[in-house]
Amino acid sequence: MWKKLHQLAIPARLYQVCGALLPWLMVASALVLATGLIRGFGFAPADYQQGQSYRIIYLHVPAAMWSMGIYAAMALAAFTGLVWQLKMANLAVAAMAPVGAVLTFIALITGSAWGKPMWGTWWVWDARLTSELVLLFLYIGAIALWHAFDDRRLAGRAAGILVLIGGVNLPVIHYSVEWWNTLHQGSTRMQQSIDPAMRSPLRWAICGFLLLSVTLTLMRLRNLILLVDKHRPWVSELAARRGYS
């Protein structure tokens, strides 16, 4: 197992593995996400309290869930990169950051749209919303630090440190509705109290967002590997095989 993990730390090998997985992930993410969204927006019954407006959960809940999940994965990769000095771990942080930032932005926008009818305003400085906004700033900060240094090793270290420090925000987001008297509703759970006709599409959407996030991350990771190793012989050989000069 450790031998296989060590092989993934080799840029050329990781580039090859990502390339082999991507076609399957693209198809799977498209099918699963389409199934969840079509069933959620087109066939799930209306909510007895919120009517049709609740359907935004099929975008909001998966985006919010994986905005935190991706950051947790970034923190793990950042720790690995800082402790074991693995270049590919730092690249993984850089690859995940834009994907996580987009999901966080989607979660904030859809959350505001969902809350408008209930709160009477697009935004309130609620603990859950504010901590999610902080998460967006952390993503943007990691992206900015990655691009702030010409030295990729230094850039990866700086971004990794920020990501690890920002990890304290994750439990704040998750438990904010329990720790404080917030306007935001409690965390969405796959409880039996949820109508199965609503719960099933949500599960599909959550899985679809995960597959899409992994797909986009691997696509960006491959590009970053080529960027960082552009002067290495294997990249030159790859370019020659594809007809690039």
UniProtKB/TrEMBL annotation:
Pfam family, any one: Cytochrom_C_asm
Membrane-spanning parts: 21-43, 63-84, 91-113, 133-149, 161-181, 201-221
Leader sequence residues: none
GO molecular function: heme binding; heme transmembrane transporter activity
GO BP, sorted A to Z: cytochrome complex assembly
Localization (cell): Cell inner membrane; Membrane
Domain Cytochrome c assembly protein: 6-184
Membrane topology label: Multi-pass membrane protein
Keywords associated with the record: Cell inner membrane, Cell membrane, Cytochrome c-type biogenesis, Membrane, Transmembrane, Transmembrane helix, Transport
GO CC entries: plasma membrane
Principal place of residence: membrane
Function: Required for the export of heme to the periplasm for the biogenesis of c-type cytochromes.
Record family assignment: Belongs to the CcmC/CycZ/HelC family.
Protein name: Heme exporter protein C
